[in-house]
Batch of 3 targets.
Target 1
Amino acid sequence: MSAVMMDGKALSAKVRQRILAETEALKERGVRPGLAVIIVGEDPASQIYVRNKEKACVECGFYSEKYALPAETSQEELLGLIDELNHNPRINGILCQMPVPAHISEQAVIDAISYEKDVDAFHPVNVGKIMIGDFDFLPCTPAGVMELLAEYGIDPKGKRCVVIGRSNIVGKPMAMLLLHKHGTVTICHSRTADLAAVCREADILVAAVGKAKFVTPDMVREGAVVIDVGMNRDNGKLCGDVDPAVAEKASYMTPVPGGVGPMTITMLMQNTLKAARLQNGL
Ligand code: GUN
């Protein structure tokens, strides 16, 4: 078998068109969604992500502000900026690109952003809402995966879903969204005994490990759907968590680049649009 490659770039363009159309309609009612993006320091990968987020704002017709702060910025200064943005009516969504420099507490930053403007869905209130299944903002990367599955007619209901990775950003919320769609979900991690055997049970396998080519063909059941959330550098080349040879066994698979990545930013735009609506009672 050779897997169908799931085209996140194409789906992303389609969803952004829809967001743009909805934004135009909102603007006629006097509301333009606004996103503030904060980046602290010079991390090259973060710089690329932030640039792509700004581009997406333009594509979707949003107002955006970017705050590029030096690496020496104190936590107090950063929290001061967040407080101002929390009270700025032009700004509906606030995102601080992670990681932040070591002298700043990531959790303090997450807690400081008003949960109503928390378009990353990282705030404890939003994390709790996701757990309950009553949420306004979807966690961006897992939401992008769910959109891709839906687009290709893959329903998690009754399926064995295995998520490799237990991060707060991807693994844990990914498991919750699959569970809400009635999947039977297992979360694996670095201490899982016989990880390969657990992965071979999966109808839907999501790799969010952060290690290049971690998932090899022997870990994949013939005909499984394999979703690759990885963004790694292998000798300078961008590659995922899944060995491309897995395509010979999978029924569907996401490429890197061009799979989950573009969808993540599009889901951020969707959350910002939703935030603008909620904050304006529309
Ligand atoms: N760093 C890596 N992924 C993300 C993300 O989704 N949001 C933020 N704020 N930072 C990140």
Target 2
Amino acid sequence: MSRRLLVTGGAGFIGSNFVHHVVEHTDDHVTVLDKLTYAGNRASLAGLPEDRVRFVQGDIADAPLVDELFAQTDAVVHYAAESHNDNSLHDPRPFLDTNIVGTYTLLEAARKHDVRFHHISTDEVYGDLELDDPERFTENTPYNPSSPYSSTKAGSDLLVRAWVRSFGVQATLSNCSNNYGPYQHVEKFIPRQITNVIRGIRPKLYGKGENVRDWIHADDHSSAVLTILDKGVIGETYLIGADGEKNNKDVVELILTLMGQPADAYDHVTDRAGHDLRYAIDSTKLRTELGWMPRFEDFEAGLASTIDWYRENEAWWAPAKDGVEAFYAAKGQ
Ligand code: NAD
Ligand code: DAU
């Protein structure tokens, strides 16, 4: 049966991948609510059928607008956030406004309209692991966020849990690992390095490059979220990951090799303050209880198709590139 979905942040990286996935795999109708900050891009939704996808430009903290949209909605998937750690070290305030106050505004509307709500969060709420820690993050790992970004995401998760328990809001949560794929902003690690190589700039590795991230293709994140929306138990949290641990040095070297450059043609630059060492997700609960499986299990193949996408879509990323590089250059990165 066709649902009316409201997708916040649907013009961002993972939100737009989700909207494409929903149009392809369901009969649902989507309304995107997106403020179009520097990270949002209408072009990420280009080509989608107008009778299936409606776009509303607005702020998730705008309570009257949110109220109006929730009255026309069966389920909400909440992606909108300030999402970049490096920006949160430079200016934390927008992270509080959107990630905390914005999420609060949506929860109050979900409570009033009794709308099914799915909250998108991150593995970063659990802090970081040692390189040799045999345990990975599970739904029972204590919260221990490190950055202004991850602490505001942790705060938003706790608000969702409190609104479920105190007010009976019909919500589920998911915490996913690092996504890669098309439509990711050039401020982020993988697109920054790919577009650097396209532009003839040497990739920039923070510190020694030993930090480990657990990579998942954005389309697999989307299929996991649809699975939780359909089959998830209200009040429950599900960790989403595809067993994709890699250190940053290996990822940069793979990008260079796939792009026909010498594997060592990159620079070490100033490390990120408070840089989390390692993230790793144990997604057993999602796989065994809800039957989800990732489709993109070959990271090298997924990375190669992502490189192709950035080669073919320079018009999508070029307008942001110079400003991002100037921001990093000013910090020695
Ligand atoms: P992004 O920065 O690419 O996109 C965020 C989107 O939200 C943009 O379109 C922006 O315009 C919109 N937005 C920001 N503030 C808003 C506001 N106040 N009102 C309405 N719209 C607003 O982010 P992303 O990487 O796609 O991340 C999406 C979500 O997934 C976030 O909640 C993030 O915490 C979470 N997440 C990201 C990753 C990752 O690897 N990128 C991993 C796990 C979880
Ligand atoms: O784990 C999920 C999180 O993944 C999400 O919650 C965040 O929204 C998302 O941005 C991402 O956070 P990271 O900080 O891990 O991603 P980022 O792409 O910024 O950096 C990935 C790694 O690469 C990290 O160890 C820092 C490093 N890095 C990053 C940049 C931009 C570099 O070495 N060089 C760079 O130029």
Target 3
Amino acid sequence: MNKDTTTEAPRPTDNWAGYYEKIGKQHLAPLWEVMSELVTPQPASACRPHLWRYALAREVLMEAGGLITAKEAERRVLILENPGMPGQSRITTSLYGGLQLVLPGEVAPAHRHSQSALRFVMEGSGAHTTVGGEKTLMEVGDFVITPPLAWHDHVNDSDQPMIWLDGLDIPLVQFLDASFAERFDSDAQPVSRPLGDSQARYGANLLPVDHASGSVVSPIFNYPYARTREALEALRRDAAWDPCHGLKMRYVNPNDGGFAMPTIGTFMQLLPRGFETAAYRATDATVFVPVEGHGRTQIGDAIFAWGPQDIFVAPSWARISHSAEEDSTLFSFSDRPVQQKLGLWREERGDTAQRTT
Ligand code: GTQ
């Protein structure tokens, strides 16, 4: 190769600003200025580890109960804003979290949207949500699904406040510009199926003989805590404890054995008293909700002491280790189904993780 052909071309190094301005007029930009921010050697997340103390959040949520009705608000929710992404309505980069309050006698009116929602019940008993024509009663620790575009209204006909954690794929749907939403023309949708129908039809290790599988959303829309807890308790007798997770189970869609929701993976784990997990990290930022027990979790450099109903979040690729002071159960959710479908999900376990730093 003739050396001169590469060195002769005029180089604009003395006038980058002028060059950038010129190409900017054509809506062009130089990759070399941004390459290292776009293609990072490791996840570079704005998401921060954080813990919301339930008692404190509850106090101000109850205050909102005196300021606005569920109907006025459409949904009376305090958004759990990740401190690294203020004003963006995100608990992780891809997911939204909020605490919703429905007071006795209130209705959060029927609507539907493209976004999938999970409810994880924090407090109260016997209020119901109606999803696609079927009511389900909500008890503490229940995991309830609202599939994309399913009509849903929440009604509290009990005599106690009902509070649950909402987890939605709002940021993900926003990123994809795929949001649709509409209001139903009355507060409550008609109920067309008896209580417990989906549970019996799809949630009893049976499926109707001609059930056409294939939906990406589980037809079971309430996974009661009582049954989950019972399974964990039975398994602990002969548990092969995972050094990173204790005993960790995944909520499943009986159609295909996949995750219960298309965009959000949900999990419940048991950490027995005294258990200390080995460090673990994965690319799915995760929201944890202790249901029973007390313990501590280290996420990167942050250490959080937690008890029932607290909510804490671990960013993508931050090292997580838990220690349980009592028998503890932790619900968690993340965007793992999305990452796995896209071939992006990655994890690093235990000692390996320690050695790679
Ligand atoms: O209950 O339908 O926290 O539509 C945010 C958006 C809850 C809901 C939220 C929603 C809902």
